[in-house]
Amino acid sequence: MHTTLSDRDLLSRLVAYDTTSRLSNLPLADFVAEYLDRPGTRLTRLPSEDGRKTSLLIETGPPARDGAGLVLSGHMDVVPADEAGWRSDPFALDDQGDRYAARGSADMKGFLALAINRFAPLDGSRLTAPLALLLTYDEEVGTVGARRFVETFDAERPLPRSVVVGEPTALRVIRSHKGMLRLRLSFEGRAAHSGYPHLGRSAIEPAARAIVALAELRHQMESERPAYAELFPAVPYPALNTGIVQGGSAANVIPDRCDIQLGIRLLPEMSAQAMADRVETAVRDSVGR
């Protein structure tokens, strides 16, 4: 006899596991696996390379054929609860009348609780198409678990093509999402004491010209309307952000290295390589090589 908790009680159990991305998620994964361990359920663990974390693929119903069925997908990790302002234990569900407060109650253990409890009572032998839960790790630090799933899962093993990802969207259906292209630009110079500038070559100066060029490229892209722009009315263009600049060691040392990290939000079907080439052209033109 398998016991099914209420949605609230299950959510309370889920948020009690501190699955901050810097920690292992194995205790939570073990709990979910045991909770859904029943006849007709097929469970696959998809561990991280170091074995400290795992994604879970939990299936019921007939094998997927021709893409039929549905996948409910979400992540088990949460961002840290280190910020000030918490009025309750972030890892204990707090009923505040019109809402529940806890780390991950919205993003996204609330969805996990609902998806798991919709899955739990099903008799797979009565389903005409499969239902699967795909629960991943380390979404908050770069969709690491989802990427490893794509890279390591048996491509010959069929899964349903229809997927609901339960990220919080104010209960609106979102059918597309921008991608994220991360680029690092490295500039090299020659270190020297600043009292002898003829002996050195600053890496920061060409990086500064590149930053200006990136700003010009950003303004140019803001006027563009690529395919699917209508799906993103607030920001209907690829958004470029120069996020991190690191260079130099002291005011009296000519810097021999400077790194720039930028992120570009690409619209569906935009080529990451084409955008990287566009950035490279703008930067090379700005530094004269």
What's this, in brief?
This protein has helices at 7-15, 26-35, 109-119, 144-152, 204-222, 272-287, and strands spanning 42-47, 54-60, 70-75, 94-95, 100-101, 131-136, 163-165, 179-188, 192-193, 239-247, 253-254, 257-266.
Give the helices and strands, then pairings.
Blueprint: H1 7-15, H2 26-35, E1 42-47, E2 54-60, E3 70-75, E4 94-95, E5 100-101, H3 109-119, E6 131-136, H4 144-152, E7 163-165, E8 179-188, E9 192-193, H5 204-222, E10 239-247, E11 253-254, E12 257-266, H6 272-287
Parallel strand pairs: 3-6, 3-7
Antiparallel strand pairs: 1-2, 2-6, 4-5, 8-12, 9-11, 10-12
Helix pairs in contact: 1-3, 5-6
Characterization of the model:
By secondary structure, the protein is α+β, with helices and mostly antiparallel strands. It has two domains: 7-165, Aminopeptidase (3-Layer(aba) Sandwich); 179-287, 2-Layer Sandwich (Alpha-Beta Plaits). The protein has six helices and twelve strands. It has helices at 7-15, 26-35, 109-119, 144-152, 204-222, 272-287; strands spanning 42-47, 54-60, 70-75, 94-95, 100-101, 131-136, 163-165, 179-188, 192-193, 239-247, 253-254, 257-266. The strands form four sheets. The chain has a five-stranded mixed β-sheet with strand order 1-2-6-3-7, sandwiched between helices. The longest helix has 19 residues, at 204-222. It is elongated. The N and C termini lie far apart (71 Å).
Supply Rg. 24 Å
- How would you sum up the major sheet? 5 strands, mixed
Q: What's the number of helices?
A: 6
What is the name of the CATH topology of the largest domain? Aminopeptidase
Q: Indicate the CATH class of the largest domain.
A: Alpha Beta
**Approximate helicity band:** 25-40%
Order of helices and strands: HHEEEEEHEHEEEHEEEH
